[in-house]
């Protein structure tokens, strides 16, 4: 048996505390609190009493609870509402066994629709998801993307699945000679205006409300896929890459951030795998997927931002579409 640090398995296996934290809120007598929250008094009392035993909330007298410092911190934490995106994510972890057995997400079985369709059908939860991901949906912008050929020749950037444009706008601010095209679903790009204006790039960004499974704006110098491929299994990944290859010029670069890791990198489990069947491919695996899409990998490295970035170009002899 390999000797290693002792793991506190009892603490790791505690499901009660995280679920209680999602449920709990406020401070008052238990009867009044239950009435205000629309809860069963005995059940809510049990939840709060459990949290008191974990150091969250204080029971000042029997049946009367008050916030302590930990509870006040809890109140300021976003995305804990079980009726919102936090609840969606929390419940999805309960499908882990199905995912391990089948390799397919069970999200639709729990919530009635596949993940992306569910967000589209519930705009409030979709907006919460954007907020959870970072500046309005596409993650915290990286400092920059270091292209193997540099940025001098890049005049047009297409941000494929670019959310509400924070990443694209931040890049254009650093590279003022370039213009951008933001591609994402209509409901997402409709929220882009204020964000791109805040970066001072509104007059250099064109918005295309569409699926990235359809034909992409053609002839750009750079197609950017950040935190897109990690949300999809192999077949849709090839389809997205093929759309980039179809739209690209022979000299076009396709840059991928997220969904690919170095061959030697440790494997990890992410919520994207459970909600949408996403996957992070090793570089070797991705090189084959890119080949199927008509792309060659020309560079791959960890950049100064800490992100692993892969660059592709259209293959000289691309395979015919299926």
Question: What distinguishing features does this structure have?
Answer:
single chain; about 325 residues; alpha/beta; seven-stranded mixed sheet; two-stranded antiparallel sheet; 11 strands
Element layout with pairings:
Elements: H1 9-12, H2 16-23, H3 30-37, H4 41-53, E1 58-61, E2 64-66, H5 69-76, H6 85-92, H7 96-102, H8 107-111, H9 115-121, H10 123-133, E3 156-160, H11 166-174, E4 179-184, H12 186-189, H13 193-198, E5 205-209, E6 222-226, H14 234-247, E7 253-257, E8 260-261, H15 271-276, E9 281-282, H16 283-293, E10 295-302, E11 308-314
Parallel strand pairs: 3-4, 3-6, 4-5, 6-7, 8-9
Antiparallel strand pairs: 1-2, 7-11, 10-11
Helix pairs in contact: 2-4, 9-10, 14-16
Structure description:
It is a single chain. The strands form three sheets. This protein has a seven-stranded mixed sheet, sandwiched between helices. The protein has a two-stranded antiparallel ribbon with strand order 1-2. The N and C termini lie far apart (49 Å). It is elongated, with a radius of gyration of 23 Å. The chain is built from 16 helices and eleven strands. It is an alpha/beta fold and 322 residues long. Strand 8, helix 15 (271-276) and strand 9 (281-282) form a beta-alpha-beta unit. Helices cover 40% and strands 16% of the residues. The model has no long low-confidence stretch (mean pLDDT 83). Helix 14 crosses helix 16 (283-293).
């Amino acid at each position: 048996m390999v000797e290693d640090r002792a793991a506190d398995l009892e603490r790791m296996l505690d499901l009660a505390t995280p679920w209680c934290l999602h449920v709990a809120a406020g401070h008052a007598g238990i009867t009044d609190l239950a009435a205000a929250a629309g809860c069963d008094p005995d059940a809510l009392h049990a939840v709060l009493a459990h949290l008191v035993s974990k150091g969250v909330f204080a029971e000042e007298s029997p049946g009367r609870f008050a916030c302590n410092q930990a509870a006040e911190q809890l109140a300021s934490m976003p995305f804990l509402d079980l009726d919102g995106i936090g609840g969606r994510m929390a419940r999805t972890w309960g499908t882990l066994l199905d995912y391990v057995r089948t390799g397919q997400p069970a999200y639709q079985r729990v919530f009635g629709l596949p993940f992306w369709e569910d967000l589209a059908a519930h705009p409030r939860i979709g907006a919460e998801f954007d907020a959870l991901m970072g500046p309005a949906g596409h993650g915290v912008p990286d400092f920059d993307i270091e292209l193997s050929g540099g940025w001098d020749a890049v005049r047009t950037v297409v941000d494929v699945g670019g959310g509400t444009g924070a990443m694209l706008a931040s890049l254009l601010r650093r590279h003022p000679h370039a213009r951008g095209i933001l591609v994402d679903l209509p409901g997402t790009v409709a929220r882009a205006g204020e964000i791109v204006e805040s970066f001072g790039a509104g007059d250099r960004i064109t918005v295309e409300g569409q699926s990235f499974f359809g034909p992409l704006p053609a002839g750009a110098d750079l197609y950017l896929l950040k935190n897109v491929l990690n949300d999809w299994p192999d077949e849709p990944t090839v389809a997205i890459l093929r759309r980039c290859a179809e739209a690209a010029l022979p000299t076009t670069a396709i840059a991928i951030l997220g969904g690919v890791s170095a061959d030697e990198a440790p494997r990890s489990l992410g919520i994207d795998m459970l909600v949408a069947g996403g996957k992070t491919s090793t570089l070797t695996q991705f090189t084959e997927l890119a080949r199927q899409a008509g792309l060659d990998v020309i560079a791959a490295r960890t950049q100064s931002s800490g992100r692993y970035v892969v660059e592709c170009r259209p293959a000289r002899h691309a395979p015919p579409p299926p």
